[in-house]
User: Fold these one by one.
Assistant:
Number 1:
Amino acid sequence: MPQPPLRHPGNHNNAMKTLIAIKEQHQSWVRDAFPNMHPLLLPLCNKPFIEYLIDFAILAGSREIRLLSDGSLMEIEEICQTGSRWGVELTYANIRPEDGERELLHKNRKFCNGSRTMILNGYTFIDYDKRLDYRVLANHSATGPIASCSTGSIAFAGSPEPAADDNPLPALRITPLDSLRSCYHIAMQILETGAERYVLPGYGSEPGCAIGRNVAIAKTAEIRKPVSIGNNVQLLPGTIIGPMAVIGSNVIIDKGSSISGSIIFDNTYIGEQLEIEGRIASGNTLIDPESGASVAMEDPHLLTGIHSATNSATLLRKTIHALAAAILILLQAIPVIILYPLLRLQGKWKNGPITQQAGLAETLAARLSLDRFPLLPKVLLGQLAIIGSAPRSNSPGCRPAVFSYAEAEDWPVTGSDAAIVERYHAVHSTPFNDIGMTIKALINRPHKRNAGAAA
Amino acid sequence: MNSSNITITLPGELRFIRLASKIASNTASLFTETRKTEAENWEFAHAFELAVSEAFTNAVVHAKKQAAPQPVTITFTLEERKLTLAMRDSNVPFSTRTPSPDPENYPENGYGLLLIRTVMDTVTLTRENDTNIITMSKTL
Amino acid sequence: MTITETTGSTHTIVTICGTLDASTAPDFRNSPAIADPSRTVVIDLDKMDFLDSSGLGALVGVLRRKQEANATILLSCMNPPVRKVFDITGTCKLFHIFDDTDAANDYAATYLRGR
C-alpha cells in the first residue's frame, strides 16, 4: 500500500532509538484465528499493525528502529526491508520469551549506544495522534514506563533532557491487542477517528472515505461513510457499504449485499443478498467479534447459500463449451500445423517464458494462445470446461478449464485473488456469457504476457 | 534468451560441501539484476548457497553408510529470471516423512529440508532408477 | 574455519571465523571450551560468514549439554545470513543473542555471579 513518507519537522539532532519487542505468547490468538497471517501484519483498518508502531517511533523522533521477537521475523523483513520506505533504518534481532526490558537493552547495547531509547514492548495498540509532537515526550519523560496495559508497555531508558518549559506532555493510551474483539474495536475506532489522527492508506476525496487502487463501484452501489476500502475490490449493483465498513483487498461484494460495522479481510467473496453487520469475514469464515464464535462455511468459497447449477444447466454448459472448443480447434489447427514443427525445432514449445527476444513464430503462438491447444480436446470429452478456474486448480468448487476467468478479467493469474474472480464467475456466468469471457481471455492473455515481460 | 545448462560432478565427500555451495551461490550471482536491491540479490545467492549445503550434506551423510562414496551431480538450468538446480546422487533415498523439528526439544538434526523449502520457491524430491533427485528453483 | 578461545575467570570467549557446516562441525565440537559442558561460553559470530543446519545442530546440541550442566551459550554479533538460519528454524528463542561481544561478556559475568 502506498505510504506518504512521514517527515521530521525541524532538526533532529537527538539520536533516539526505538526497540519494538513482540513475543509469540501475546500473538498466539492471531495465529489461531488467521493461521496464514504473521501477527505483525494483522490489518487494522487496512494498515498492517507493525506500521502503526513504526509510525509512532518516527513521531517520537526515532530514525533507528530495531524489531525484536522470539519468533520468526523473516516475513516482516521481506516486507519492511531496511525501512527506507519510511526514511528510517530498520534492523531485526531475536530475543528469548522470558526477556524483560533490562535484557532487551543489554542484548542490544551496541544499537542503543548509550542514547535515549524507547521500548515498545508487547502486542498493544498505541492510540497516537499524528498531529502531536511526541519528541517532547520522548526527550523529557522520566526513565521507566510511561504507559502500560495487560499485554505490554511503553518505556524509556537513558537520562531525559530537562524540560525547557511547562508544556504538558501529550497523553498516551495503549490498548491490549489480545483478542478478535479488541482487534475489531480498535479497527472501528481507527475508522471513526480517521486519517486526521493516523496515517492511513488509500485515497479519499472527502474525509471518512478511503479507497484503494482498482476499485470498481457499480452505479447503484451505495457508500455510507465512514468506510475504508482496499485494492482490487468490486462492489456490485445494489450493495450498501457502510457505515463503519472496512473492506480489505481482493474482495468482491455481490449484488444487494450490505456491510456495516464489519471488517472484510483480504481475499474474501461475499455472496448475494447478505446482510453483514458487526462481523469479521475472512475467506470462508464469518466471525462474531464479541463472542469470538466463528462459522466456517461448508462451501469453501462462498459466504452465502448460492445454489449450485442444476443438472440441465450443466448439460447445456457442457454442450456449449464443447461447441466453442470445436470452433477453436478448427481456428487454431492451421497456425498449429505451421508453427508447431518450427517451435519444436527451437525447443520453445510450451515451456519457458516468452521473452523480449522471442522470435516471430513464438510471438505469434503466444498471441494466438496456441499453448492451450493440446487442452482443447479434453473439452470435447467433457473433462475440462472452456473457461473456469486455472487448469491446474483442483480445489473443491472450482471448474478446471482451458482458460480462466481471471485471465479474461485481466486479473493477476496467480495467488488467491485470482481465485476470488474465478469463484465469482463460476457462480454467475451463464453458458453464453462464458463464450464472451473466452473471447476476452483470448484477447487479454497475450497482452498480459507482454506487460509481464516489459515490467 | 534460451535456457542453458551447467553440469558439475563432485566426489561425495564432506570436504566438498563448501565447494558445492560456493559454486551454487556464484552461479546464482550471475542473475544479479540492476533493478533489484543489493539485499535481494544477496538473498538470492544465499538461498542457493544454503540449499546446496543442505542437499549435498544430506547426500554425503547417507553415502558414508555405503562402501565407497558416490559422486554427486549438480545441474543448473538458467532461464531469464529463474534458476533451477537438480542434484543427483545414487545413495539411499531421502527421508521425507520426518516432520519439522520442534525447537523446544533442542533437536540437533532435521532442519535441512525445512531450510531448503523455506528459501526456495519450489522443491521436489524424486527417485528414478536408484538415483535420488532433488530439484529446486527460485525466481529473482 | 578457525576457532580461537580466550579463557577468563568465569567464562570463555570463542571466536569462530569462517563457515560452520557438516565439514567443520566436528572441529567445533572438539574445541576445549565447547566440549566442556560446565563451561559457559560467549561465541563471537562476527566473522562467521555461513551457517547451515549441520552447524546449527552442533550449536543446539552443545547448548543442551551445557544447560544440563548449569552452563550456557551466549551468542554475539550475528550476521544476517547466520540469523536467517536461526530465524527459520525457530531456534533463535533458545539462545541469548547479543549485538555486542562486550555486552555478552558483561552479561555472562553477572549471570554466573548471580547463581
Number 2:
Amino acid sequence: MVKASIEARGDLRLTRLTKSYGDFTAVDDLSLTIPKGSFFALLGPSGCGKTTTLRMIAGLEEPTAGSIHLGETDITTTKPYQRPINTVFQNYALFPHLTIFENIAFGLRRRGQKDVKEAVDKVLNLVELPHLAERKPTQLSGGQQQRIALARAIVNRPALLLLDEPLGALDLKLRRQMQIELKWIQKEVGLTFVHVTHDQEEAMTMADTIAVMNEGQIEQMGSPAELYDNPETAYVANFLGQSNLIKGTISGNDGDSLIVDLYGQKIALPKNRSHAIDNSTYAGIRPEKFRISLLETPVHGNVLTGGRIEDVSYIGVSTQYQVEMPWGQELMVFEQNDDGVAPFNKGDAVNISWAPTFTFALRGDEDVTAGSEVEPEDLDEE
Amino acid sequence: MGKIRTPYLLLLPGFGFLFTFFILPIINLAQTSTQTRVSGGDTGQYEQTLRFTNYLDAFVENKEQFGRSFLYAIIATVLALAIAYPLAYAIAFKAGKYKNLLLVLVVAPFFTSFLLRTIAWKQILGEEGFVVPTLRSLGIISESTTLTSTSFAVVMGMTYNFLPFMTLPLFASIDRIDPRTLEASGDLYANGLTTFRRVTLPLSMPGVVAGTLLTFIPAAGDYVNAAILGNPNTKMLGNVIESRYFKIVDYPTAAALSFTLMAAILILVTLYIRKAGTEELV
C-alpha cells in the first residue's frame, strides 16, 4: 500500500474536492485534471483557496469531501510522507540545523538511498550552487535559499512538484530571472509542476495552463493566451491584465459575427468570443488593442467616436491615455511609442478603433469591478 | 573618553555584587576547607594548617551520599525531561489561544513556597493521601509498602520541584521552530517519528541542554527534598554538608565537601555540553 502510493505516476486528478473550516468554504467542489509533465498554475488573490488546494494535494490538509488521484492511485487520505509529491514552500522551510548538502539529501536518505552524493551534486549543479554544499541555510541569500529549496524537492524526482508562491520573497529582478530558470528546469527534468501564485505575470510567464481561482472555485482555465484574449468573466478579464468593459446590447447577427450596440454606436465581434447569455452584454477590449486617431483620419474595423483625451502618461515603452467617451466612461488605451513621441495631447478630440477579433463579450449581469479590486501584492495567505 | 567608560560603569554593580557575595565567600570557603581543629580548643575553633587530605577524608567518608546525590539528580532530570518535553511541545504547537494561560500555569507553583510544596508532597504520598490507597487497591504496591520517607518520594519531589526549570527553556526552544520545517520533513518522506528524531529534537537541543542543566545542577546540590521526603538512608550530599556545618560544627569537612561537589558538577556538565554538541547553542 505504502509502496504503491509512493510509486504512483500519471495525471493528477482532483474530483469534487472541498475543504471547509466551520462555516467558511475555502475550496468549493473543485474538479481538475493536471496532465503529467505540464507546468500548471493556480492563480488567484489571497483567500481564493489556491494554497488550500495545494496543501490538500501535498497531504498537509485533509479534504472535507472529494478525492485526489495520481494516475490510477487514490491518494486522498495518504500521509504526506507516502506521496510521491514534493513541495517548495513559500518561506522555503529549509532545515536550519543541517548543511545545504544534508538538506538536499534529506528526502533521499528517508527513502533509504545509501549513496546520495552523486544525486545531490548533480542537482546542486543544476541550480548552479555547487560551492554552497557545506554551508548552513542562514548563511545563504534569499535567492540562494529559494534554489536550494527547489533542489531539495526535485532531487527526489517526484511525480509532482508543488510550488507555493516560490518567488514571493524575492525582489523583482531576481524574480524575473528565477521565472525563466524555473521554466527551464521544469523542461530539463520533465516533472509535473503545480505552481500557486497571486502574480498573474509570473503565472503567464511560466505556466502552460493557468486555472484562475475565485472563492474556492475555478473561474476559468486555459493557456495564458486563451485567458488573456478571451476571458469568460469580468473577474478573469480584470485579474489578468486590464480590461475596458463597455455596457451594450446585442442587436444582430452578421455571419460569424455579432453586432453589439454600445451607447448607440455599433461594433462587431466574433460569435465564439461571446459569453453572454442574453442580449445584454459587456464588450471587452484590452487597452493595448485600441488605436487612437484624430477625427479626420480614416480608420478600419470597430470605431467609437466622440472621445476626448483626459490624461496622458508617458511610461517609456508605451504611452497610456485615459479617453473620456460621450457616455462618461473613461477608457484606457496603451499606445506603443513607435515614433518616440506621444502624438496626442490632453483635450484632443479623438476616435478609438480596433480589430473586431480583439473583442470579447461578457454576460450583461457581470460585476465589472470583480477581480480588479483585489490587491495582487497582498501576500497574506493565512 | 566618557563613552568608553560607560559600559564598565554599567558592569560595576554586578561585579560588586558578585565579588561580595560569591568571590569572597568562595575564598573564605577555600581557606576553611584546609583547616584543622585547634587541639584543646572549643567547638568550632579551627586553625589553618593547609591539610589537603581533608578533601580525601571527606570524600571517602561520604562517597555513598555522593553517589546518591548524582544518581537522584540524574533520575529526576531524566523524569523531568520526559514529562516536560511533551508538555512544552503541546504548549508551543497545540495550545493555540491557551498558550499564555498554560505558561502561567507552569510558573504558578512558584507563587507558593518551595518548602510548603515539598511538605504537600508528604501528604500526597502519605497514608491518608489518595495515592497510596489507590495503588494498594489496584495491587500495584503491597499493603505494607509506604511511599513517604523513601527514595521514591525524594526523587518525585525533586522531579516536581524542578519541572518548571525544565519546561520553560524547552518551550522557548520548541516555540521557535518554524512548523513549516516539520511539514517540509513530512513532505520529504519522513514519518512522525523520523521527523521528531531528525528535525524537532535537533532543533530543540538548545532547550534540552539548558533545561537539563537548570534541573541537574540544583538537584545535585539539593537537600530540602531529601530532608522532608526521605529517611536517613536517602541522605544526599546537601544533607551531609548541612549537618556538618550547622549540627556538628565541622566547618572544614563541610567546606571540602562543597568544593568537591562543585568540582564534580563542573566536570560532569563540561562533559555533557561537549557531548551534546553545543555549536547549536549559540
